[in-house]
Amino acid sequence: MGRRKGRDISGWIVVDKPAGWGSTDVVNKVRWAFQAKKAGHAGTLDPDATGLLAVALGEATKVVSSITEALKAYDFTVRWGAETATDDASGEVLREAAARPGADAIRAALPGWTGDVMQVPPAYSAVHVDGRRAYELAREGEAPELAARPLYVDELELLEVRGADRAVLRLVCGKGGYVRSIARDLGRELGCLGHVESLRRIWSGPFDLDQSVSLERIEELARSEAIDDLLLPVEAGLDDLPVCRVTELAATRIRNGNPAEVVSSEAEFGDLAWAAHQGRPLALGQYRAGHFHPSRVLNLA
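and the corresponding structure tokens:
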């Protein structure tokens, strides 16, 4: 089997994903537009969701884990009065309720959903159940029993009440959070039922929507020299992590996968960090007792 054809190009493209596109579809479009050998994304968005999707090209795919582990923020609208099979507006209505919560009741409930919480994923999710995706089983009429999973919620804030039927909230959470589950569980607690009507990711780790590019712009510049101007450097995905600065001799050791002494660093013992020489990223790894221990070496020209 031959090597995948394409360019050895590395960096990040922050896409403002439109509704109706799957995350993998966006990655494939970006890979085609840049003629890149390798591409991936840092955190799935549901097809109906919009907003920030960070796409990694080339060596940036080696640091995707640092973004998927980072905090992410979502603005979402909850529609009260109905619970659906998918916990969003695309699903069949399963139950309805006449009650509607006021702003004070909503605000009073939110503290219970911050900090370390347990969350049951939606039935229509990518969670594995006996080797299959939960959404595959749900589509076949088998309601999978999904176990509650730990989730860290940094912030859950009421932004706006829109009439009796809708509320706009902001969620800042760690890896593995399902906004649809938050809407479902809040609706149950408030006695009014609820589901996500719209969802937009506004930032993810070091990336913000202000840095984003539309798919239309990517298609407009596809396979031209000008498209490379849209690319952010690999180190843009590491901005939330402490940097360990090293000498040329240490840089050689790190490039070969070996620990090396650090000249200066803001990292504390055991921190995930990245090593740099003369501002250029060398590797992702761990800082321990004055030394950097590489786990993912970057091969940048």
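(Above: one complete record from the training split.) The first helix runs from residue 23 to 34.
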